[in-house]
Structures are given as structure tokens and as C-alpha cells.
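Notes taken during the Thursday session

The instructor put the following on the board and asked us to keep it in front of us for the whole hour. The protein is polynucleotide 5'-hydroxyl-kinase. We were told not to look anything up and to reason only from what is written here. First, the residues (355 in total):
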Amino acid sequence: MNKATYTTDVPGDRLSLLETLSSRQRPTKVMLIGGTDSGKTTLLTFLANGLIERGLRVAIVDSDVGQKGVLPPAAISLAFPEGPFSNPSELRGAAHYFIGTTSPGQYAGEMAVGVKRLVDIAIKSADIVLIDTTGFVTGPGAEMKRLKAELVRPDIVVFLEKGGELEHLRNLLAPYGEILRLPVSPKVRAYSREERREIRGKKWRAYFAASTPVDVDLREVIPGGTSLFQGRPLTPEEVELLSSAFGWLVLAGWKGGRYTVVKSDVESSPRHYDRFALHAVDFEKLSNLLVGFIDGDGLCLGVGILKWISFSARKAQVLTPLSPEEVSKAVELRFGRIRVLENGEELGLLRRDEL
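Then, after some discussion, the predicted C-alpha cells were revealed:
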């Protein structure tokens, strides 16, 4: 269920890095950076097992939300391995930070804050913190890495690259930690988009295998990550006016800085409107939407799938593996940007501004 598996059949430079980390002053923070299919998680697994064998307390911060090892998907997770492990999917998360998507290009801030929050927790009890990152290394991905490094201040930043393709990113991160370059192992293989989707599907299924529906009172658990429920409810006259003006069935709406409505199209031809004055959310986009249960510290207790919502009663039904006791600790239900079924089928990603 994970691309990376533990192996000791590694190039000599990996063994040298292991010895370097074993002798460093503690605690030490190590950030791993490389493009897609560069072997970051394989390297992390090797280093973690080797350090554990040497009696060191290791923490893993898994921020590769697109190909997560430590469940749940679409969140950054912290794990403390208690012994040898074959791949990160065997590890149980100790803390999580909700991102809500497997494609975090529009969530650079949340990605950086999440890594920082979990590293701060890890460093209190770990000798070495290993930070896995996404393969998103150009454009917004480069800025995301810079934000992470600026906040975390890693002691070592390990770059996995085939040639000099990450030179710009290395120069960008050089002020924030010692830079170490390693060549991509010739044993690393590329995975197709379909293979990646299949791997994610297995992880979704594993996470939601023992799920049950829970009712959430949105008057007590605040909806977050969305413009829904912000402002006063629309009057019946406003609902009727908007419905007739745009050919919608307006299911709910609010007036704050602008009008926000949840709608279903009645007419086949969409009508244009000023998006600065009106924000329209398609009702179907809320179906099977990933949501996160957030505690009073801003950390994620676990995730769920939104199955039903009543706007008038402000109640929602969410499918989740969390126990009622765990759900009772949530103060916020944060809306994500991916729709997924409990059988692992992904129904699609949403843009940040769609909700």
C-alpha cells in the first residue's frame, strides 16, 4: 500500500548520511526534498530504521499529502516509530494537521504551518525528526518548500536529484539549513498517474474501513474552510429573487460581505454574475466531500466524508472511523477540497475558491 519499502541495499552515500545523522548533536531536523519518484520516502524509511537500530528516538513528519504513508490521506501526519518498520503505512499517527486535498498547490501556507506545528511537537521528545515532502518542486511548489524551511529551520536539507535540476531550489533554501545533495538511486522507478491513484485508493479504503456515520451539530461544531454559513441567512424574498434571476434552485444562502448561495441548476445555460458580489456553490460539490475534525489546538483528530447536510437545521452527517468520544473533542468541521468515496474512488478535486 506504499511505494517505499525498507531496504539496506542502498548506495554508499546513504550509509554515509546515516552515520552523519547518528553522530550529530541532538535534536536534529532533516528535511528531504526531491521531485516525483526520486526516492524520498525510501530514503526516509532506510534512515529511520537505521537510526532506531542505533537506539535513537525518531519522529517522522509525513507531509507528502499526495502519496501519504502515515494515514489519514490529505493531512500532514506525525509518527514516532517504536521499532523497525517496512514502510510508513505501518505507522500510527500521533498528531495530524488537516490540508483537505491531495494536490496542495493552493495551500502553501497551510502546508508550511502544518509541518511547523508537527515538528514543534516532535522535537520535544525525538532525537531526530525526518520530514518527508511532496514531489512538487517548481513554481508554487518551490515557494511551498521555502516557507517550510523558513519556518522549521532544518539542520540538514537533503536534495535528491538526477543532475542539477534543483539548483535554484537549493540556492533558495540555503539560508535556512545545511544543504546536502544525493543522486537519485538508479533503482527508483517511476509510477504512472493511474498507479498513484490506485495506491491512494487503497489508503482511502484502509482508513475508512471501519467507519460509521455520525451526526454533527454545526451550531456547536463550527464549519470552517468555507464561506458557507457566514453572514445572516437570506430572506425568502432574496432566495426567490436569486432563483429567478439566475435559473437556480437556491437551497440556502447568506449575506455577509457578499451573497453566498448553495444552488442547483434548473436551466441548462449558466448565467454570468459578478463573483465579487455573489458566490455560488454547486450543491453536488458538497456530496462526499472530505472534511476534517479539528480540535481546540487546531490539530486534526481525523477525517470524514460529508454524506448529508441540512442548512436550515445546521446539522451534517459524516462518515468517519473516529469514535463518538473523539468526535466530541472537535470544535470545527473543516471543509476540504477533494470528493472521495469510502471504497477509495476519488470523485474529483475542487479549487480553493469553489467553497
